Amino acid sequence: MKNLKSKISLFAKLSFTAFILFAINTGLNAQEKPEIRKESNKQYEQGVPMGSILKHAQDELPAGMEYCRCTSSIVQNGNFSDGPATGGNITSPSSVPGWNKGTNTPQYQPGMGYMTPGFIYLWGNQVVSESVWQKVYFEEGKRYKGCFAFKYVYSHPANPSKHIRFKLLASKSQTLNTPQCPGETCTLITTSQTIVENDGWQLHFFENWIPDEDYYFLFITPENDETINGAEYISHGFIDDLCIEEDPYKTCEELLEYADFSLASSSIDGNIITSLVFEPDYPAPYGVSHWWQIYEAQNCAENDFTVLNEYSQDTPLREVSGDATFIVESPNPNFPDNDIMVNQCYIVKHGLYYWDGHGCKWIEKRAKLRVSFSVNQRNGAVQFSLQKSNRD
Questions:
Q1: What is residue 257's DSSP assignment?
Q2: Does domain 4-22+251-370 fall into CATH 2.60.40.10?
Q3: Residue pLDDT, tens place only, 189-227
Q4: Are 317 and 332 in contact (CB under 8 A)?
Q5: Is residue 231 helix, strand or coil?
Q6: DSSP readout, 37-53?
Q7: 0.85 surpassed by pTM
Q8: Domain 33-246: CATH superfamily, name plus number
Q9: Is the dihedral of CA 157, 162, 166, 172 positive or negative?
Q10: What is the CA radius of gyration of the chain?
Q11: Domain regions of the chain by residue span
Q12: Which of 43, 98, 271, 349 could form a disulfide with 72 if both were Cys (CB 3.0 to 4.6 A apart)?
């Protein structure tokens, strides 16, 4: 994080307002909870082989090669390095720790995968597929992210779809008949990009998956574009190095720096400030919306920071929502008689809207913009005050 004092440059000294709302999590009917719901997810270190030799040490990866790694993966044996030396079909109960046969005849392969020995071999299309599953608890309202490696292997010469994609599904049942995913018992977590021959191993990253119900099982299955059940219409592929972890929501304190902003550029024509461009100092994380306003201040007294809470009128001179950058232009036909003038004082407000169902909703920072004939000037000392927002 930048030192705040070093970020103060151009117009305003920052003061922020934060408003925190807390949601009340309602309990679920105990009768709706199968036994698995009483088990918390174990955390497995991902990217470290379990008794196997890494294909590439982390610091020896070829240029541009990425890898999947979770700090605390909730998937057991996600790199498939723990399995029988002879390989073979996966059954239930399985000789591949953590994994079970879903549909048809998924295979475990002990050879070198993406990063470690061991991977899963699956085939499928839109109407028939192989799959494997593992008991993983996905909790309603929590957010998850993850990654896996996958590779296209083969399609019948007559197959129009010589490509493959992999899907992760969350299910309430361990008997899910993939690739179908009925909405009342199953939901899609993510679908990879489509790859073809000679693409080699590819990585698929996903984030911000939030289940709207509780699910208890993770399924992996591949697909292509075909809808006919037949060997000549399926595609074959490998999957390896799967990790999934909970992605906790940002706290209000973590988001405060994303509301900080600076004057990026300005221009003047006589006494009119023809253009002001304000930008956040940091790109906001996923799920954050921006809201900008500029008001005429009630007074322009130097070093008077009460001005940050005083407007000369309730209506903003300009207002923009949704855009990360705030551009203020004068004159503006949509705002007649509201030109931004030299030798005036203004309040610039940058708000962030972030509603995760658990923590904060509105975060706001304000800056006093005191404009003199030298537009590259800020006045006064840094002052911060924590107070409630007038937004709910």
A1: H
A2: yes
A3: 999 999 999 999 999 999 889 999 999 999 999 999 999
A4: no
A5: helix
A6: GGSPPP-B--SS-SSS-
A7: no
A8: Galactose-binding domain-like (2.60.120.260)
A9: negative
A10: 28
A11: 4-22+251-370, 33-246
A12: 43
